[in-house]
Amino acid sequence: MSSIKKFQVTFDCAEPERVARFWCEVLGYVVPPPPEGFDSWDAFDGSLPPERQGSAFACVDPSGEGPRLFFQRVPEGKAVKNRVHLDVRVATGLVGAERLATLEAERDRLVALGAKCENVLIADGFDESCIVMQDVEGNEFCLD
Question: Which of 9, 55, 104, 139 has the greatest number of CB atoms lying within 10 Å of its CB?
Answer without folding.
Answer: 139
